[in-house]
Amino acid sequence: MLRNILLAEIMPIVEEFDQRTNEDSVYENRLQAAANNFIAATSSLPRASGCFPPCGFQAQGAVYNCMTCQFDSCEFPLDCPVKDIKVEENNRTQMWCEVPFHLPKDVEIVWRYAMGKTMLIDQFKEVTVGVDPLYFIPSARLEHSGTYQCEIFSQEHSLIRIYYYLTVVPLVQLGQAELQDVFEQAMLPGGQFSSLTPTVPITLLLPSTDILTTCLAAMLLLIFLSLGVLYWLSYKRGTNDSVPDQDKKYTEKKKYVIHC
Q1: Distance CA 156, CA 108 (A)
Q2: Number of other CB atoms surrounding residue 118 within 10 Å
């Protein structure tokens, strides 16, 4: 932005000077006017800042103030606003201790827990200490409800404190909410249930003709093979049943001959 303002003020004067359309003494006043215009335009521009609101001690975000000849710090509080999280009972949840600004390499992360929704330091109990920014709960229970604090240190100096308020919704309450929803729908005019989700037209993707022909031929071949196997089994069973009858007739005939 500064470059664009500078070129807009200086380039017309440079082009006229190259063409030597005016005497050199004329450009002294014009250059002074261009400088005044540049100062006025740049004074209204927003100053770049490395600060990321709304919280945390950000040493890298300090900017040099040309008026006071000092570095202006971000002057944000260490405590961030509490973020609310809800999770159903027996479900997993996770909380991250991450910041949008640059952190030193030698950081230490401390996780603490307190019952209820609070930001009072004396009510928290230390849970873990290390460098892991993730706090993970694989199966949330009712006793997990409360406030979780993440504090980042560097060389024993606190940089930021992040807060999460976790609410674990019990399964009984979920069941009651579902029943209440069904009851409210049943009380609609005419006792009709409202549609929970908008109707979306379903588009059927049919396979190609070649695939359909192949599948049909395979089904017919399978049917013919099945019929052949059934016929062969029934024929074999009939053959086996006829053998004892023949033996019986032969035996009877043989006995008859002996008696004669």
Answers
A1: 8
A2: 16
| CA proximity to 145, closest of 109, 177, 120, 170 | 170
Q: Are strands 157-169 and 79-88 parallel, antiparallel or unpaired?
A: parallel
The neighbour count for residue 234, using CB atoms within 10 Å, is 10
Segments in the chain forming alpha helices (H): 2-19, 26-43, 171-186, 209-259
Q: Is-contact 186 193, C-beta < 8 A?
A: yes
In this structure, what token pair is assigned to residue 147?
């406030």
Mapping DSSP to helix (H, G, I), strand (E, B) and coil, where does residue 96 land?
strand
Locate 196 and state its tokens: 């929970």
- One-letter amino acid at 16 equals E
Query: Distance of CA 132 to CAs 16, 41, 149, Å?
Result: 64, 47, 14
Q: What angle do CA 195, 198, 203 make, to 5 degrees?
A: 125
Q: Which amino acid is present at 115?
A: M
26-43 and 2-19 helices, crossing angle to 10°: 170
Do 111 and 155 form a contact (C-beta atoms < 8 A)? Answer: no
The owner of tokens 């013919």 is 224
Q: What is the CA radius of gyration of the chain?
A: 44
Residue 7's CB is within 10 A of a number of other CB atoms, namely 11
- pLDDT in single tens digits along all 260 residues of the chain: 778 888 888 888 777 777 766 666 777 788 888 888 888 887 777 665 678 889 999 888 777 777 777 777 788 999 999 999 999 999 999 999 999 998 998 999 999 999 999 999 999 999 999 999 999 999 999 999 999 999 999 998 999 999 999 999 998 866 566 666 666 666 666 555 555 444 444 444 556 677 778 888 888 888 888 888 888 887 777 666 555 555 544 444 444 444 44
